[in-house]
Structures are given as C-alpha cells and as structure tokens.
Automatic annotation (TrEMBL):
Domain ABC3 transporter permease C-terminal positions: 250-361
Transmembrane segments: 241-268, 289-322, 328-351
Membrane topology: Multi-pass membrane protein
Organism lineage: Bacteria, Bacillati, Cyanobacteriota, Cyanophyceae, Oscillatoriophycideae
GO (cellular component) term, any one: plasma membrane
Naturally occurring in which organism (per UniProt): Lyngbya aestuarii BL J
Residues in MacB-like periplasmic core domain copies: 1-210
Localization per record: Cell membrane
The name this protein goes by in its record: FtsX-like permease family protein
InterPro entries given in the database record: ABC3_permease_C, MacB_PCD, Macrolide_Exporter_MacB
Main location class: membrane
C-alpha cells in the first residue's frame, strides 16, 4: 500500500517536472474564474508576453501559446491533433526536443509561414513509415509543410503531448483561429522560465504588478499566475493524503492479522498443555515460558511480514507495469513494514504467553 502511494507521489512529481524546470504559468481569468464551470475570458495577448520578457529582469525566456484542436489529414489519413501556436522559446521553456528536422524560428513568425512540427505519435498516425519532412498536411482549408518531428514526450496530466502539432503563433492566430481580441494576438496561456529557482516568488510578484498596470486593473485580476513549486506542493499534499489512506487500510489488515496470530497462539497453548506442564515440572520458570511463546509469536509474524513484503514488492512492480505509476518503494519502507509485523506479533502474543506461563504444572500434566 505504501509502495503504491510512493509511486503516485513519484508519478505526480514527474508530471509536474515535465512541464519544464522553474516555470511560471500565466492563465487568463482570475483565480475565482478558474473554479467556475464557465470558460474564463481570453484576456492575455502576445504583447503581454513580450512585455514580460523585456521588463522583468529575473525572467530567462517567455513562451506564449495559443491552443486549439483540429482534424489534420494527409492522403486520406486523418488524426485529431492538439494545435499549439508557439514561438521558438517554447522548445526550451517546456523542455521539448526535436527528433528530426527543425523547430520554428523568429523568421517563420514574422512571415506567417505555413509550417508545422508534428508530435511523434501524430506523425506516425499520419505518415506511418514514410518520412514526413517536406510533406504537406491539410488543416481546415490550408496546407502546412512539415519541417520537424518531436521527440516522444508522453502524457502530462492526461494530455498526450505526442499528439501535438506546433504552428507559428502568428499563423495560428491569423489563419486558423482568427483575431478575437481587440488588444492584439490572443494567447491561451504564457509559460515563463526563471533564471534562478530562488527568484520564483520575486518573478511572480513582478509579473503580477506588470500585468495589472498593462490591463489597468483596479479590482479583481483578469489573470492568474501559478507557481510550479506551489503546484507541486499542492499535489504532494494530495498524494501524501492518499498514502496515509492506503497506510490506514493496511493498518486495519495488520490489526486483523494480529488477532489471527493471538487466536493461533491461544490454540497452541491449549494443544501444548502437556509440554508446558513438563517444562515447568523440570524447572522452567514463568519467565522462560513467557519468553518462549513471545519469541514464537514474533518469529511467526516476522516470517509472515517477510513473505508479505516479497508479495507486496511484486505487487508494486505489477502495478507499475500495468499503470502509469512508477515502482516506488524504499528499503526503509521494507524495514519498517517487517518491523511492524514483528511488533504486531509481540503485542498480540503477550496474552497467550501470559496464559501459558500461568499454567499450574500439576494441573497441566493431569489434564494431558
């Protein structure tokens, strides 16, 4: 149970880290609007991202993006692609890598070039074993030339990053989405990488003040800045609570197992009355009998703990094989679980041991 909880924590940490190191995310709409079922208004524009890059000194790179979803086709083959109108900085800010070809450049943005960089799985669905570089794919009523294919990225929080199609943000805004903001090219959100992890709070404060000035905000913010570390801490608390719930479930099983050990030892005392009486008749003290049965209970439960640990570790690796969770279990956890198993035997073995130690040797031999 603890191994599954630790695997969930490792999985969540990996998902957050895959978003990019030291990244702030700026999302349209106030924090209150994010919790509402109505989609928040699109209040961020490309000029906001450019202002952040120019005026916030602790910022390393800024990557605005305009997202959408459309059907992409090539010679009768269709695939539902997650469109990302991006800039060249998206590659480094979000920790993506190009496997073949190239990514978009600043010149592509200036010229509104009709190019696309495909995710690895999207390229495979459309082209199979054919080399996609230089080919033309159809999107709505326009053709886009494939200039690159990305390295496999996997899924992040349920979104398959390998089904992405990266298009210059200007082309995305002008040819696919259309201008929907009177203040310029709208963006879905802005990713900001910070030079120093210690400057995350300062960067967040400066960005919030800058956007308030640009948007002339006097009351409620029309944007939300989310810190990657805060997100990791929040998700860590959730997975930590999950681990505690799983540990509590395991504790119930341990309690039931302890009662089973106590019952077995009580039956053992009854069946071994003659042995106890004989030992006490030849000089064994109550402490000797007490120690004998306590040691037996501890050995019994510790052996069960070792066997259960072996099965549990195998179960953790089995869960990791069939789910996205990683196989996370530490040697300390194994040592603690075996120790707890032995402690359960010690605790529940005391009552049968006391009962055996208090037997009268004459009565024990006579009853046998």
């Amino acid at each position: 149970m603890i191994g599954i909880g630790e695997g969930a924590q490792s999985f969540v940490n990996a998902q957050v880290n895959s978003l990019g190191p030291n990244v702030l995310f700026i999302i349209p709409g106030s924090p209150e609007a994010q919790s509402r079922p109505v989609y928040p208004p699109q209040t961020l524009v490309l000029a906001d991202a450019e202002a952040i890059a120019e005026q916030v000194p602790v910022v390393e790179e800024v990557a605005p993006s305009l997202n959408g979803s459309e059907l992409m086709s090539y010679r009768g083959k269709n695939a539902s692609a997650s469109l990302i109108g991006a800039t060249p900085e998206y590659l480094s800010v979000r920790s993506f890598d190009v496997a073949r070809g190239r990514f978009m450049s600043d010149l592509d943005l200036k010229r509104n070039e009709q190019i696309v960089v495909l995710g690895s799985e999207l390229a495979e669905q459309l082209f199979g074993n054919e080399d996609p570089l230089g080919k033309q794919v159809r999107l709505k009523d326009i053709s886009l030339q494939v200039v690159g294919v990305m390295q496999p990225k996997g899924s992040t929080f349920g979104t398959n990053q390998d089904m992405n199609a990266f298009i210059p943000i200007t082309t995305m805004a002008n040819r696919i989405v259309g201008e929907t903001s009177p203040y310029g090219t709208q963006v879905t959100f802005i990713s900001v990488s910070i030079k120093n992890p210690d400057s995350m709070k300062a960067a967040q404060f400066q960005i919030e003040n800058l956007l308030r000035l640009r948007h002339k905000i006097t009351d409620e913010d029309d944007f939300t800045v989310r810190n990657q570390k805060d997100l990791m801490n929040t998700l860590g608390q959730i997975t930590g609570a999950l681990t505690l719930v799983l540990a509590a479930t395991a504790a119930i099983s341990l309690f039931v197992g302890g009662i089973g050990i106590m019952n077995i030892m009580l039956v053992s005392v009854t069946e071994r009355t003659q042995e106890i009486g004989l030992r006490k008749a030849i000089g064994a003290s109550q402490q000797d009998i007490l120690a004998q049965f306590i040691i037996e209970a501890v050995i019994l439960s510790a052996a069960g703990g070792l066997l259960g640990t072996a099965i549990g570790v195998g179960g953790v690796f089995l869960v990791a094989a069939v789910t996205p969770l990683s196989a996370g279990i530490s040697p300390v956890t194994i040592a603690v679980t075996v120790s707890v198993s032995g402690g359960i035997g010690l605790f529940f073995g005391v009552i049968p041991a006391k009962r055996a130690a208090q037997l009268d040797p004459i009565v024990a031999l006579r009853s046998a």
